[in-house]
Amino acid sequence: MIAHLAGTIAEKSAEGVVIDVAGVGYAVSAPTDTLANLGAVGDEVLLYTYLHLRENEIALYGFTDAEQRRAFLALIAVSGIGPKVALAVLSALTPQLLGNAVTTEDVATLSSVPGIGKKTAQRMILELKGKLGAAPEAGAGATAPGVAPAASPVAEAQAALFAMGLTPVEVAEALVGAPADGTTAELLRYALHRLGGGA
After folding, report:
1. Burial class of residue 151 in the structure, from the number of CB atoms within 10 Å of its CB (0-12 exposed, 13-18 middle, 19+ buried)
2. Residues 6+ positions from 102 with CB-CB distance below 8 Å
3. Residue 38: count of CB within 10 angstroms of its CB
């Protein structure tokens, strides 16, 4: 198995990226937030990867960190969910938010992801219970003072946007291209600007 790739971005698109590793180009599909935060062509990157093998298909999937890869592996183990749908889920929800949705049996949040219907969302809850690490008390009503200490600025910004009533897809789109090293406040300003609202 190819566990990770460290190399240079040779090509980049909305669907994936090509990583040049010692002269060999690896085509990698990834969640939208991973792609948005990777950098530009020519930048050095490290991606955690999963090699998916089927009868007539070999595909490589890349992730920001090991936690995102674990969430992907848990998702594709759910009956009826393949790699493309798993990518859609992780493009809309961070592993923490996914874990929270499963733990709280939040069918509405899960079924708002493209490709996930109500029945699939219910199956996800049933099959993923206990398999994902949910962030403590990071529900939709959480605001900055109540965010778990381990939450990243991105997770905090996402939680705040959810508290404003945005859907997972809207939150993901609002944060596309956001600065990877931004603070929670900077990320929220960026997202609100993209959404057309000002503070």
Report:
1. buried
2. 110, 124, 125, 128, 129, 132, 134
3. 21
Report CA 189 to chain centroid distance, whole Å: 20
Q: Which amino acid is at 23?
A: G
> 0.70 exceeded by the pTM?
no
Q: Which DSSP letter does residue 81 get?
A: -
DSSP string, 113-145: STT--HHHHHHHHHHHTTTS-PPTT--TT--GG
Single out the residue of 56, 54, 58, 50 nearest to residue 74, CA to CA: 50
For 42, the enclosing helix (H) or strand (E) is none
pLDDT per position as a tens digit, 137-159: 333 333 333 333 345 677 777 77
pLDDT at position 175: 80
The gap from C-alpha 148 to its chain's centroid, in whole angstroms, comes to 19
- What stretches of the chain adopt beta strand conformation (E)? 4-12, 16-21, 24-29, 44-54, 57-63
How far is Cα 29 from Cα 152, in angstroms, rounded to an integer?
24
Structure confidence by residue, pLDDT tens digits, 41-64: 999 999 999 998 877 778 899 998
